[in-house]
Design goal:
mainly alpha, globular, two-stranded antiparallel ribbon, 4 strands
Length: 226
């Protein structure tokens, strides 16, 4: 088993060439009173704002903009907290790993549940996507503990790309509306929204990453005799 202090981060995302310089630029300009813990709290606040925005979209679709702002706030806090700690050389590996990913778990849950409580995505579809997200996340944590590699990007996709996709989905929701589709299967009418298809696609993509990665990693460990 590896220790958290020595784990290697792998974050080869599509938006990395833009995100990494932006985070370094922000870290260099953060006031001294802004700490990594403060930024972590900001990230959680952003997730709560997103969830509230989704729920309130039942009242007025303009709250979808609030949900999108929440994603931006969440990105700012969640992506910058570790970067700031490394920039200031004040890392606390075990504490940081624990707090960061504990709060991430809470944030992911409230965002997906809020989405499921909106009029745009079915609650059960949102829960399936949350389960798929958690499955991949747990796999990441197990692999980190076993081999010391913290891999948070798959197929050039990571949390940042998912936030961008969610914001684009919010824009579509705002301009298109609920986009209900009804299928007639026998004597039964199956109703769902076009956004259910988008979220279902993300869930299937996450599950695909999970099973493919779990299989490859298991084979690798078997070949190494570990």
């Amino acid at each position: 088993m590896r220790t958290i202090e020595t784990h290697r981060r792998v974050n080869d995302i599509l938006l990395g060439p833009l995100e990494r310089p932006a985070l370094q630029w922000l870290s260099a300009r953060m006031p001294a009173w802004i700490t990594p813990d403060f930024l972590t709290a900001i990230g959680v606040l952003g997730a709560l704002v997103t969830s509230i925005g989704y729920i309130l979209s039942n009242v007025d679709r303009n709250f979808l903009w609030l949900a999108s702002v929440g994603f931006l706030v969440n990105w700012f806090g969640d992506s910058l907290d570790g970067t700031l700690a490394r920039y200031r050389h004040i890392e606390r590996p075990r504490y940081g790993f624990y707090i960061d990913h504990t709060t991430d778990t809470f944030s992911q849950a409230v965002v997906f549940l809020g989405l499921g409580l909106s009029p745009y995505v079915s609650f059960d579809i949102a829960c399936v996507a949350l389960i798929a997200f958690f499955m991949l996340t747990i796999l990441v944590y197990v692999w980190t503990n076993v081999v010391g590699e913290f891999k948070i990007s798959y197929g050039k996709l990571g949390p940042t790309e998912l936030r961008v996709f969610a914001i684009l989905l919010n824009i579509a929701m705002y301009f298109i509306g609920t986009g209900s589709v009804v299928w007639l299967i026998g004597n039964k009418h199956l109703s769902f929204s076009i956004y259910d298809l988008g979220v279902s696609f993300i869930a299937l993509l996450l599950l695909g990453f999970f099973f493919n990665t779990a299989w490859k990693q298991a084979r690798l460990l078997s070949e190494l005799g570990e």
